[in-house]
């Protein structure tokens, strides 16, 4: 019996990695002008950003129970165990829905294991966790040990990101109006992180150059040996600044395994513009 890694579309990974390791992606729903689109199926991230540039205000909703049921049932019928690595449970109900559907499928297929693990993360941070899990499975590591590792990585994955504007986060309820007000008054670049699965404001910095320098300082403070781990970068339609960030991390000896555009789910809530870096803060035992 093989074990399949499943993620949702709040996870950002290069297509070649998803394809090589047969990582299945469950779609969140994107709502634009009273139309609902399945992320990555009915709408691509470039189309989402184009709509936002036109002034449209998209919304998201979690993976549907039907999509969970189809994915879990298909794998169960094929005799596959599943590990669903979810978008942060503090930011979405997808983890809880996955748990409810998994119980239903396990009751029907008694010999199949379906495990739901909260990545406490999103974007390339979840991607790093899923990729590392897939590498272990490829090496023949047991399902139980892989789940143990996923939980460890979820506790130690770092997100450091800079946005052009806090307005989308406030609109989506991901950050307080007070923090938004302060940011707008000062005309600053907010630097944020994720702590225990929730988005937190780290610092307010004037100017993109200073903000990137502050991000690099945080990377140096929070990471273990950058030469010995996977580091990912993501951007919200701002490849130029993402490449600047990549170059500065490489100057520290860091190995960047991907530079990805932030997908539709987080693009809706973060807005256009901004960059992020993702890494582990502690070496594995």
From TrEMBL:
SUPFAM superfamilies: DAK1/DegV-like
Record function comment: May bind long-chain fatty acids, such as palmitate, and may play a role in lipid transport or fatty acid metabolism.
GO MF annotation list: lipid binding
Listed InterPro entries: DegV, DegV_C, DegV_domain_contain
PROSITE patterns, per database record: DEGV
Organism from which the protein derives: Halothermothrix orenii (strain H 168 / OCM 544 / DSM 9562)
Name of the protein described by the UniProt record: DegV family protein
PANTHER family: DEGV DOMAIN-CONTAINING PROTEIN DR_1986-RELATED, DEGV DOMAIN-CONTAINING PROTEIN YITS
Calcium as UniProt keyword: no
Key word Amino-acid biosynthesis present: no
Keywords: Lipid-binding
Organism superkingdom: Bacteria
């Amino acid at each position: 019996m093989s074990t399949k890694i499943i993620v949702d579309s709040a996870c950002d990974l290069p297509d070649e990695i998803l394809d090589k390791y047969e990582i299945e992606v469950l779609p969140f729903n994107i709502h634009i002008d009273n139309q609902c689109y399945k992320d990555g199926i009915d709408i691509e991230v470039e189309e989402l950003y184009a709509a936002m540039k036109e002034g449209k205000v998209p919304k998201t909703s979690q993976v549907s129970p039907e999509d969970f049921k189809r994915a879990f049932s298909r794998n169960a019928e094929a005799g596959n165990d599943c590990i669903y690595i979810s978008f942060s449970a503090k930011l979405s109900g997808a983890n809880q829905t996955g748990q409810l559907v998994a119980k239903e499928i396990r009751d029907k297929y008694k010999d199949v294991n379906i495990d739901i693990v909260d990545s406490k993360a999103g974007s390339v941070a979840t991607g790093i966790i899923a990729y590392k899990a897939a590498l272990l499975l490829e090496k023949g590591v047991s399902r139980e040990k892989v789940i143990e590792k996923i939980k460890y990585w979820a506790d130690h994955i770092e997100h450091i990101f800079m946005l052009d504007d806090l307005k989308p986060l406030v609109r989506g309820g991901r950050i307080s109006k007070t923090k938004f007000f302060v940011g707008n008054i000062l005309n600053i670049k907010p630097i944020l992180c994720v702590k225990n699965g929730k988005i937190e404001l780290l610092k307010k910095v004037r100017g993109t150059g200073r903000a990137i320098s502050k991000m690099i300082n945080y990377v140096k403070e929070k990471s273990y040996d950058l030469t010995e781990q996977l580091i990912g970068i993501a951007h919200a339609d701002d490849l130029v600044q993402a490449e600047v960030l990549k170059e500065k991390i490489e100057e520290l000896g860091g190995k960047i395994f991907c530079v990805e555009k932030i997908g539709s789910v987080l693009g809706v809530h973060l807005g256009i513009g901004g960059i992020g870096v993702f890494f582990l803060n502690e070496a594995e035992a």
